From TrEMBL:
Enzyme Commission number: 3.1.11.6
Record-given protein name: Exodeoxyribonuclease 7 large subunit
Family annotation (Pfam families): Exonuc_VII_L, tRNA_anti_2
Compartment list: Cytoplasm
Amino acid sequence: MDLLDDESGSNAHDYTVSEISGAVKRVIEGEFGRVRVRGEVGRVSMPRSGHMYFDLKDDRSVIAAVSWKGQVAKMAVRPEEGMEVIATGKLTTFPGQSKYQLIVDEVEPAGAGALMAMLEARRKQLAGEGLFDAAHKRAIPWLPQVIGVVTSPSGAVIRDILHRLRERFPRHVLIWPVAVQGQACAPEVARAIRGFNAMKPGGPIPRPDLIIVARGGGSIEDLWGFNEEAVVRAAFDSEIPLISAVGHETDTTLIDYASDRRAPTPTAAAEMAVPVRAELASWLAEVQARMGRAARGRLEQRDQRLRDLSRGLGRPETLTQPARQRFDMWADRLGPALRTLVLRKGTRFAPLSARIEPRLLRQFMANESRRLEGFAGRLRPAPGARLRRAQSDLDMLARRLQAANARMITEAQRRNREGGAQLTALAARLDRLPQAKIEALRERLDRLDRMRQTLGYTETLKRGYAVVRGPDGVVTSAEVAGKQPGLEIEFSDGRLAVIPGGGGTSASPAKPKPKPTKKKSDPGADQGSLF
């Protein structure tokens, strides 16, 4: 009987559990080595250690997968449950649980369709929470003082943005450098947005009035960091208005939906951020001109209206002449009328005077005296009572007058204080106004002087030109120069005398020349011929 066929197995080698586990580990690792496995991501867990544990499955089988903390940090795309991926790693065993598993180094979506499906699912989820609602979007400031830019400091994007801002309307720019792709992109961009919002107004670093998140074009994998939920929530929570300029015009990321404004390119974001200063200056000049024309037209219209009304009034002497004539007429008639009245009254008084006798006058006086004595008896007690009433009324009026006088004095003092304060403020403004006017005029004079120096012909001489003069003035052609007995050439550092026909030259020392006086007969004497 063959020992190998011994069914009892009394001669079989006794293996330990560790030996069997090690043998299985060596077989699996030696047979497969590094593999690429395609499947759907199942359960995903990530404990506090930083390692990631997940399942890869299809319709019939499941493989346990694990990625260590360092490998997770390097992943461009992290697996999520329900996502179809291609995992690359080494197949091995875990003796502690008698199972085999895949140590995953790299995870990539199984085609663009999977990424787009995951992106659409995330977009619907965030839209359902209201992160993309138009009611939450803020208006972009018309002319921000400080602009914060979140982008890579070494790319062409920041140069394009700065160049465009310099061309349109230079502003103060704060750059927050971040990674614009890879695993570090999403947390750095979210941290930059929240960092700009955390700045306090009036602090040592000015708080931006506008944030631009920018990146150049790329594939969907390159732009994936701007689709992460952390970036979208940071853009939604930003109290500072935010413009997203990620990718080209055809690229769309989730931050575009959450931002207050989307720009097709970073250059377009800079154009949205600030207006064109030259256009503003032109518009202001046009408005000023229109305002001046309107004011002049209004004044001319009022002046013409006043002249028309003055013509309708007529001359002053025409208005007073009839009244003066009537006065002269009544003055002439007044003397005869008075004399006629005296004669008529005298005629009526003569018969009455003949009837008046002394007895009648004494009797009339006696009657009137008795009447007066009766009235005096009745009036003797009345003055005292009336005096007392008048005294009481006078006292009451005196008290009211004193109270009113006190109020008037208080009010006058208050008005004097207010008037003094206003007068002091006006005096301070009046003191500052001449100085400000003088400073403005001095600045304008300096600008005009610099323009005069720039446009003068001496500046042209410094660029390599010269002025040719003859006995009759400036020479402007070779034909005229050949006929001159002598020429003088002025350079930027001095003058040189030249005798045509080989007669030699003589140079004057390089010293400043007084500016020639401009003559009416020679309009170009102060400029000369430049060649």
